[in-house]
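Whiteboard transcription, Tuesday session. T.W. wrote the structure tokens on the left side:
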């Protein structure tokens, strides 16, 4: 298993520093790798600051091959820190109270910032809370720049909080109140520490103030003034001692030391007034701006306190690779890096997070990915034995099916031939039934007409003018046809036998055939007058005779016309018996 490590990234106004930390066999922090990349601290380039950070990180990647999930120190010129004191309440109620205090004390709408808090002290009566916030757009741009360079951010801690952790790691036994000043390019962070309690204050007075004073006095641009400042203060210049440029740098540095002493004094007084803390017993300096040679002396004289530089590497072992990267020479800018790495040896450190919510959710999902992948792999492996077993069983069954198909192939051929023969038999039966029906229908017409003639002769003096067959529409008769007779079920694997032939023709379904008849009856006894009742009676006997015929089931639509003298006209319809169809 890979030993735990932390890739710490300190993004300052004028530099980017990266350090890879781990824990050695003795339990001490080990700085494995280190890289420092300066960039322009000119405040006029604020809109390009994120781009310069990305370029500096890219240069570190190219030169030192660093990269991976990173813990980020949010610089003081971005992060707002404020300490509040509220009545002590139960933990489940703190959230609402802290949110209310945040809305009151953060000078931006909470929707526009990323904010968090940390409890500094709780004595049962008062709750001391650190509020910290950063504008969402600025934090998102910073995280995007780091991610683009190959440093996806997994932690975002205010630089002031990292400074406190670094001091506690360097001086674990320090219980008396002290002041730690981290002098950067754009801001100076003042840490007031007393045991486990601390507070922070950011000052707008920092190294850029010296550069700006030089630029104003010599009337040169900011970049030239920054270069001149570094050359003079580090002794890397050939300017004579009486040079106006050297004198301008020395005057600007002296003025800065005096102003910083005044700000520290004012801040210390305000801190004691608001917190009731005891006066500090010592001052520690760190940060790139603290390298002014006369700064410790000036502060010690004015503050009347011992002033020394913070040795952040006192409790850190430096590996050869980090030493080659200039870690020891750059110890003044390592405080925030060490503070980010102390979680390796003190995992219970409480710190607020300024990581945007979207990145927090993405990071949580990324951390769960190995577990999810392991669960998916375990689920896949759990299904492997049953899948193999069922695959083996399926393969055996498929072989059996193939074998049985080969055995059944001849039988299927015989079955197909039998089914074809049965269809031919059924079609022949239908043809026979049709021919038989046609033959019987022909005989029925002869017999029906003979019966009709017989009844007309019995009545006498009567004849037919019209005889019309009225058959039902073809679709009605087709829809009413009986289904073909069912086949008998097969016995002992034999082919199904056809249904037994019916001797008598089937009774047609659907509407019966009708005959429309029209005729006249002569009233011989009354040729010149209206038809007599006797003639009407004769026609009725005729109709009754038709109704008694075996070919007729009913007489319908009877109509009589007596308008002509001596002639009785009649119309009626005969409903033909379906069993004696015509």
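and on the right, the sequence the group agreed on:
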């Amino acid at each position: 298993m890979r030993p735990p490590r932390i890739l710490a990234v300190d993004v300052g106004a004028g530099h980017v520093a990266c350090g890879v930390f781990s824990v050695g066999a003795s339990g001490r922090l080990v700085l494995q790798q280190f890289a420092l990349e300066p960039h322009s601290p000119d405040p006029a380039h604020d809109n390009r600051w994120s781009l310069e950070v990305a370029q500096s990180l890219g240069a570190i990647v190219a030169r030192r091959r660093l990269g991976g999930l990173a813990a980020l120190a949010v610089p003081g010129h971005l992060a707002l820190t404020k300490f509040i004191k509220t009545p002590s309440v139960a933990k489940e109620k703190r959230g609402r109270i802290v949110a209310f205090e945040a809305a009151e004390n953060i000078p931006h709408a909470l929707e526009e910032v990323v904010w968090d808090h940390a409890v500094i002290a709780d004595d049962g009566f008062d709750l001391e809370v650190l509020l910290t916030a950063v504008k969402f757009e600025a934090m998102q741009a910073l995280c995007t720049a780091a991610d683009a360079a190959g440093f996806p951010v997994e932690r975002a801690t205010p630089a002031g909080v990292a400074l406190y952790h670094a001091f506690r790691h360097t001086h674990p036994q320090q219980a008396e109140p002290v002041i730690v000043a981290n002098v950067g390019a754009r801001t100076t962070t003042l840490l007031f520490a007393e045991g486990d309690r601390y507070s922070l204050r950011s000052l707008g007075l920092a190294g850029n103030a010296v550069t700006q004073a030089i630029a104003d006095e010599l009337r040169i641009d900011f970049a030239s003034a920054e270069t001149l400042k570094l050359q003079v203060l580090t002794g890397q210049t050939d300017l004579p001692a009486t040079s106006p440029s050297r004198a301008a740098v020395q005057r600007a540095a002296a003025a800065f030391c005096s102003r910083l002493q005044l700000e520290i004094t004012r801040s210390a007084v305000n801190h004691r007034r608001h917190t009731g803390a005891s006066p500090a017993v010592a001052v520690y300096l760190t940060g790139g701006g603290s390298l002014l040679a006369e700064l410790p002396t000036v502060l010690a004289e004015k503050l009347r306190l011992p002033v020394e530089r913070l040795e952040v590497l006192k409790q850190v072992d430096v590996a050869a690779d980090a030493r080659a990267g200039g870690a020891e020479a750059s110890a003044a800018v390592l405080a925030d890096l060490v503070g980010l790495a102390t979680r390796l040896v003190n995992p219970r450190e409480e710190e607020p997070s300024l990581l945007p919510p979207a990145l927090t959710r993405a990071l949580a999902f990324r951390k769960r990915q190995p577990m999810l992948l392991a669960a998916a792999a375990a689920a896949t492996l759990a299904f492997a034995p049953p899948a193999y077993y069922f695959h083996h069983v399926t393969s055996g069954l498929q072989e059996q099916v193939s074998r049985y198909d080969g055995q059944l192939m001849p039988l299927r051929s015989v079955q197909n031939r039998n089914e074809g023969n049965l269809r031919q038999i059924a079609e022949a039966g239908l043809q026979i039934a049709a021919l038989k029906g046609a033959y019987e229908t022909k005989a029925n017409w002869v017999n029906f007409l003979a019966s009709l003639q017989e009844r007309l002769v019995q009545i006498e003096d009567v004849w037919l003018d019209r005889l019309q067959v009225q058959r039902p529409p073809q679709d009605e008769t087709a829809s009413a046809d009986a289904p073909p007779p069912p086949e008998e079920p097969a016995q002992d694997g034999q082919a199904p036998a056809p249904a037994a032939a019916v001797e008598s023709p089937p009774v047609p379904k659907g509407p019966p055939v009708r005959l429309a008849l029209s005729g006249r009856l002569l009233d011989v006894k009354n040729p010149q007058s209206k038809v007599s009742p006797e003639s009407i009676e004769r026609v009725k006997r005729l109709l009754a005779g038709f109704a008694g015929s075996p070919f007729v089931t009913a007489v319908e639509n009877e109509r009589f016309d007596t308008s002509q003298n001596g002639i009785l006209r009649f119309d009626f319809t005969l409903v033909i018996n379906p069993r004696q169809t015509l």
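Someone added at the bottom: The first helix runs from residue 49 to 64.
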